[in-house]
User: Fold this.
Amino acid sequence: MATVHHWTGLEAKALRLALRLSVRAFAERLGLAVSTVSKWESKLSATEPRPDTQAILDTALGRADAAVHLRFETLLSEMAGTVATVGRRVVASGPRAWEYESWADDLDRVVVALSRQNFAFADSLLTRWLSRFKAHELDEKGLYLFARSTALLGDLKRDQGVVLGPLSAQHSYAGARTVFSQLDIPRRVAQLDLSLAVVTEMSGKLEVAARNYETLAVDDRLSRRDRARARLWVGTALSKDGEHDYATRVMQAATREFEDLTEPDDWSVAHQKLALARRGVGDLSQALQFIDIARSSGTTDSPMQRVRLDTAHGHILLSDTATQDDGILVLGQAAKVAAQYGLVHQLRSIEGVKAMIEGPTGPRQR
Assistant:
């Protein structure tokens, strides 16, 4: 809410207009003579109410609801050009209720934008709020929104492939975790631990990531779905590290959990991961079965998921000399979509797949 450090006739007029009162009705509310209010309005910033009247105006503003405060600040902003000192006399005493509501609404929009890989729009929404407030200025509700914004910024950086460094997913996740720890919200802290484990895996530290996932897979701070995702990602890290058979068993357990939870998107992703694990041991028939299930199930058709599915599918097709040409085409399409949406990490994965399969003169013969 706004606070007036020193009232003049200008601020008094703005308050009257914000309250939508006539001069007479405003004077009656304040318990003053109509001539006093008329004097303020004729002289504006050239006159100042007496100290006792300043207190009366403070009380009237303090009792006003949020809509009146918003109108009052808007009117003063419009009047600011007429008096140079207005901006110094009226200040906001912190975020206001309607700003918190707008902030929360914008975070919902960020989630949608990230699901569609609309990174530019998501970044603009997050920057709007993270650049507006400092954490030390906020109350608990504001800190919660600040931490959630910072965590979503981490998601954005992760999806863009900016994993490590001062402006990275890791940096944002760590900052959000600190604030949620300060607010004593264990579930959010555990979710950030899970996100940081993903960053560890993406940076190539597979054994460390697998151990972190194993711990989180039995962490009661997390929801059942998040624990199942942690279990799935144990298998992902192990599969990348060459432990394909055990990874398959772990991922199949997670898949059953997703089925029990009725989570079709997670169930689809699990089959995609299983397909790659079976490809790792040379079981291409089962790998194709799993990837076909993944491609035909799930409800989310985001660019990110299309690229992931096509990359996995192409990887499997490239592993068989009979389908290598098809694999090259599928990976090429995945690379185009990844480049279009700025999915840098996925582009690197596609190049990595091609590098593993192709020799100096083209695809290896198996």
About this structure: Residues 84-88, 360-366 have pLDDT under 50 and may be disordered.
